[in-house]
sn-glycerol-3-phosphate ABC transporter ATP-binding protein UgpC (Neoaquamicrobium microcysteis), 342 residues
Amino acid sequence: MSSLTLRNLQKRFGRVEVIRGVDLDVADGEFVVFVGPSGCGKSTLLRMISGLEDVTDGELRIGDRVVNEVQPAKRGVAMVFQSYALYPHLNVRDNMGFGLKVRKVPGPERERRVAEAAALLKLDALLERFPRELSGGQRQRVAIGRAIVGHPDVFLFDEPLSNLDAELRVHMRSEIAALHKRLGNTMIYVTHDQVEAMTLADKIVVLRDGLVEQVGSPRELYERPDNIFVAQFIGSPKMNILPAASAAGFGAQPAGTASVGIRPEHLSIVAPDRGQLSGKVVITEYTGASSLLHVALDSGETCLVVIDGDSPEADARVGLVAASKDLHHFGADGRAQRNLHG
Ligand SMILES: Nc1ncnc2c1ncn2[C@@H]1O[C@H](COP(=O)(O)OP(=O)(O)OP(=O)(O)O)[C@@H](O)[C@H]1O
């Protein structure tokens, strides 16, 4: 098992700077998730850690060893890809054991490790099957098994579940969480999926344009985003951001507040004359467990509101209220103002 340390890590493809100086500490056994908009550099950063991409500048340590120049097979990492990358002509047993064979691990030891991983992943009954005879979830399990047999210090996952249907994703997500609990390895995981990030991570790293915007636990990022970008990136539907003047009805604002953020699930609907703000319902989207209302505020902005119970009709006038603890204040530079509610 291993910690990871990234210091001013940089990657250029030709003249394009893709990773522009990333500092990050990953503790031994931690589950870290990289999120960020498409093209921000999540996969590139993961591939640099794995050794599939070289490091342009900066320092990358795994444990206490600088691995910038160490070849992938000698870094003690194993990567699981979105595409599974199984060998179509090998059965499950041989797919899982292939890397060990290349590394000249003796047959009996190979058999033992494959059997151990197969038992862990409930693949015992499928060892003689070929990839084409497996479901998507089973293929992904084989890909994870192939990583496990190498006994890596660090597992790297690049959107491993994005080819699976919704139900299977949920199932595999809990299997990965259970695997982490069981093995206790350091894991780094790239995903586009908010729920995956929030449920799996000890620590989420929000990336934007090759730089880290914020690192924190899912709760820290949700409750105390450092800036508007993170505030709107974490949480779904995304946080409402209103100009300070339009949000004045919510109460006092720290000096220098330029905008106020409030999550759709933290707004409540009341009678129009009882609201801190008021407006008109434009659209209601019923999603089963809750409804999403689009409310046109009298100040001109549109606000999203999530409500559990019966939703007002479109065109109804409504009042909105929020608890002061749920308000986020941002300065003109988009950074969080911490001096009122911490
Ligand atoms: N081999 C390469 N040569 C040139 N540019 C590259 C190469 N690989 C990636 N890039 C660029 O680097 C940037 C980051 O790509 P990367 O795949 O790391 O982003 P990402 O955050 O994983 O995106 P996504 O969420 O869409 O998978 C993109 O602008 C991409 O076009």
In short: DSSP finds eight helices and 18 strands in the chain.
